[in-house]
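Quick start: what a row looks like.
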Amino acid sequence: MNSLVNQITPLITTHSANSTFTIIILAHIDCGKTTLCDSLIHSLAPGIISHREGALDGVDDGGDGEKVRFFDSLGEERRRGITIVGSGISLVYKPSPSALQSNPLPHVIQLIDSPGHLDFSHEVHALSNSSTSPGCVFLIDAVKGIEVRTVQLIRLGVQSNTVPLLTINKVDLLFDVLVDDHMNMNPDTTQQERRTQRGADLTAAWFRLRGLIEQVNAVCATVVNSYSSAMEEKGRSVDRQGLEVRWTFNPRQNVAFASASQLWGFRGRDVTKYWASRINRNCSRIGNDESSSSGSSGSSDSSGSSGEISNSSKSSSKPKITPKQIRSLLWSDSCLNPHTLKVSKYNSSKESYFSMNHADGNDDTVGEIRNVPIFAALAIGPIWELASFVRATKSPKSLQDAKDSGLKLQELVRKWGLPGFDSSTGKNTNAKEFEPPKGKGMIDKRIGAVMRRFYPLAEAIMSGVVETVPREEVHAEVGVDSEEDTIAIVPKYLPVFRSNIVTTVEAITCVEGNDIVVFGFCKVLKGMVREGDRLFVLNGNGNGKDEEPIKTPPIHLFIITGSAYSQVGSVAAGKICAIYCPGLENLCPRQAFTLSTSSGGDNFVELDGDRQKMDPILKVSVEAEAVGGMGGMEARNILQSGLRRLGNTDASVSVEISASGEFLLGAIGEVHLENTVKNLVEIYCGCKIKVVTGENIVLYKETTADWNDGDKPGKNNSKQINLGQLLNPMFKSELGGGSNGDFEGKNGVCRGLISTTTSNAAITIRVLCYDPESELESELEMAKSNDNSCTLVQSSDCNSDLVNKLQAEIIAGFHLAVKSGPLMEEPLFKIKVVVENIEMMTVAVEEIGPGVIMGVVRSCIRHAFLTRPVRIVERYYRGEFQTSLEALGSLYDVLNRRRGRVIGEEMVENTDMILVLGEIPHSECFGLSAELVTASRGEAVVPILEIAGWVVCEKDPFWVPHSKEEREDYGEAHAYVDKKNEAKNAIAAVRKRKGLMGDLVLVQAEKQRTLKTNK
């Protein structure tokens, strides 16, 4: 680690001439993101990760050891086997010499690993914007193809304006399937038949890879078009053509194929360079053989030639074929005869044939290749040949057999002209790598041992990054005395163990009670940040305009190397680092911010923009459980302090206190909630207390509905319309009166008596559905509750003088009533409260005690509300579901069962994939993913869900049969129970959670018995 820090420090702390590239790895979970990072670190920074460690080659020596991942340093990450916290590392990549540069300068590669699990998408969201990561390596599993988060991450990449390099990972697993099928052939089949089958299998693999890239391109085109159209509808300019170019993948340019666990990978240029050299040697040898023999004739191409590759010069000293010529045909359905250089079209009706080496040759003569597409033969063929040999020799009977097998493998690949082998003797210093495993359960590493010499992974990925991703803009002219503004961004916070920090600063403050320090993940965009600088904090909320932004205390800078942090004196533009100052998390809680030497708001960098962000879905109550004789109040104070720090540093969680004093914690999913509670206890509360979580909390609101046509009250409002809640004992106290007076009301109107010595005061209030478009000009607005779309108005017939005298208490009573409704003490939604009359005939306003009017108004509103049709309001979440055409019916079935609704659907061209935009109630989100995957057999998946808004549930929660026909169908009102009424069930669940009175239902009864024994 020290060698890497010493190597990278001069490149990070100064404005060097070396180019800098920043990339983030994006992929669905288990596609190999962290393994790819480990492989690149192992290749570019030898000694930090050994190739023998588990993340690269699996468990070494057949033991049961734990897989080692460089970025997954947290215990929870290793326990679950997933990445939870995004982190980065700076590496040095020296490109291979070329014709243009014989000794190119090394490049600085800033590699950022990100989680793949949907519950930790906030980490990806924070680190994937174009300011933090201008480029991305987009990883897809070669076998599984487009998965759950593929479309979501493509959309995020398009919204973030990043430049992608597509990498098809786990290609070795794709060939494992083909080799298994081939090895299961009849053992009596001839070598010729096996090579024929090999050609067919290679062609099938190529069609699989080609189809996968075509599907990715189709999805990208759909996402780009929808995003561009949405931005244009909002009146915002977007470079549609530029997005289409960046997000169209061409295997000749911005596509790589890899096996991260075996440390090999290749791009089109790697394949063409090797094969052009080998085919030219082969043609030269054939030419020499033909010139030395008379009367010989070349064999014709059995697949039917349609062209021939040749150079204009007939000189034998010039190559017969160039890499550029092969590259032009590499991804087509053309077939190349390596002996005659004739090109033909692939013909599925003809037999395919492939052999890597000539059957009778002892040199590197190319074997026969007929009717196999060029990519399948040249790129996939060597891997298939290796896999076939390894599978055929995977069970040696003795140690001598293992050694002989290793020598045969070395001899085989020596003919291919690979580096690391002595072409004259075939000896290799690492001969044991080429021997099969000697025990059961041990991992066979021979394919990786050969392929990482054939096609090194780091060279394939890094060369693609350098050629595809834009380099960081480095302002080399900015010096110590420059007046140019320094700008840096902090997209997220990093809780860091104090033991992982290498620093000379003694004043680093840990989170109270443990060994955790809060850092900020930082990237310098312009200028240079130095140790001890004090910078302005810009958060986009008007800083630099209406008020002077705050300044940080003196900051300290650290190089990030995974989970380790080493202090440096400065960081130049384009480089990532970690920053620290006392109280950093309190400078700009819960959001990304900008640091600048200038207080001007023009330097603020917007990081979120229009990108989709997942909102917390799970919400639970958390309580502190004292440990070791600690008092309950002390435990609660520790919990409150820990929640405050957690809420300040983690923008993906929501922390709030309910009206009853409960602490509520919100998270994106179950895994995220579990990890958040663990962090709360261990990091932010110092393991001083235990935390107990309650059941999932679903938020509702209460509202009133319009009267049915047959139930509208008459003009004189003399008869109460039949409503189910009026018969429910839960609301007996609300309808029977209150402590501050008596109430009588019907059909949405309530008259409340005000308790005074003379009892001649009253107030009449009406509750209506709120429709802003139907406001009467004669009504005078008194107050509004914008959060819940409720309004308080004064009727034109009401005494304005009395209203003015009592206005403060009336408004206070209105807000109290709106904040907590009578159904389940949840906020009221979209209602209009009208003060119709105030009667103060013989009573002076001064005679009424303080707070009496406020209580009467609140009770009147609740009473009037219950005498109208009531409804609950549910929060809906919206997302774009991804499904195949076959699983579309299963998706619709699940959405219907969960009361979801479909807004629209879009077919992705050239695929069977359908994107369905749907909405689903909050209460139905729990367990949705598991049910959908099971019902669709994994072909339909849950998207990132965002809040869509509040929707009224049209079911009457207290409906009971009233008419004669209804009683005949459903029974009498007092005996009617509707167990499928979602609204009623929701009210019962919320009231039970809050300890409110519920329905009087007989749960269990036992027959009375006497002590006398029956004889």
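That is the whole record. The radius of gyration is 36 Å. Residues 809 and 980 are 42 Å apart (CA to CA).
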